[in-house]
């Protein structure tokens, strides 16, 4: 068989890995959208590197858009197979893909209005809302911990990845002739001390492993707890500077972790009395879905739920749904906290909030997760003094902060712990994906020192026989 890497290769978005078996059958692992890649983003999302119509089955590790976001285009371009994933992933992916389609349609509509007036070529969205909904019937839900067939002579098993609700590590048993080949794809791995979710589950020996490496050269900051850091930023911004605290956060995963942290401050009678706004209809809908799966939570949050039946709700929190309500926050002249999507500040309502607040030194923009270097969030974290937002240049006078303890990705100790059940001598190939190249090279050396003999950092569209 052969494997080709068509996304998340020396970068952290666009996850797509294609297996081609000896009998010609093709299995796609993830079908993610590239994000935050500047002018290269759109061309990358429009070029597959393979024919979608030739793919027989898609196995989806989790619902995040950089892993699921091109599914509607895959279907539109000819894919007609099943999409296997967990139950929570299917439900969350439907919400995220509808939202992604609506954003694309609106962005293209706004762009074409300007282009038409200037006589420039018009754009087409990657996919429409109809395309997204047409893909939903292909989702086939499977539980954790049970082998199931996906093709003749190919079985699949999901184990908990601990990254977001429903996230899975994908394990394949592929029989070719007299041999059964064991391949494991990590998807995105969570942390072993996650606030909400269970830890990544152990797994059996693999012949080949495809491993994410987002934080392959980093250790997360556990010295100061997230709730204490949040308290500091609220007090510093809202009371000392009398400004607004703008917090970009991914709708799925990060938003719920922040809501839980605010709730914890309230349970400890430490939550500052200021207005809190969750300005993201998608985040609100996702939070309601997550509440339906308490069995996926870890023991800590289940214990909290014995005294607090809604760990994502707290005093002072207001959910903003309509566009009109969101715009009214521009004129809200009191200190407050605004939590909004997206996490890299590349799209969504938070981009408008940053645009309207970035030139005021009383305000703070607090990044809560990883940002691609070329994204707006990445440029702010890099210290740029002037940024373009919606075609307008803004001087950066707002304070830029970050909380580095909140990543849903495991650091190199978490990744090493996940691998600890493997005999390195039995792993014939270990591919590092979903990471920046310098990080991957550093992590590669660490893995080699642990006995993994053939560690490869594939580039875009790299293909190799197994």
UniProtKB/TrEMBL annotation:
Occurrences of domain Metallo-beta-lactamase (ranges): 13-236
Keyword hit for Zinc: no
Alphabetically ordered keywords of this record: Hydrolase
Residue span(s) of domain Beta-Casp: 255-380
Record bears the keyword Hydrolase: yes
Lineage: superkingdom: Bacteria
Protein name (Swiss-Prot/TrEMBL): MBL fold metallo-hydrolase
Species, as recorded: Flaviaesturariibacter amylovorans
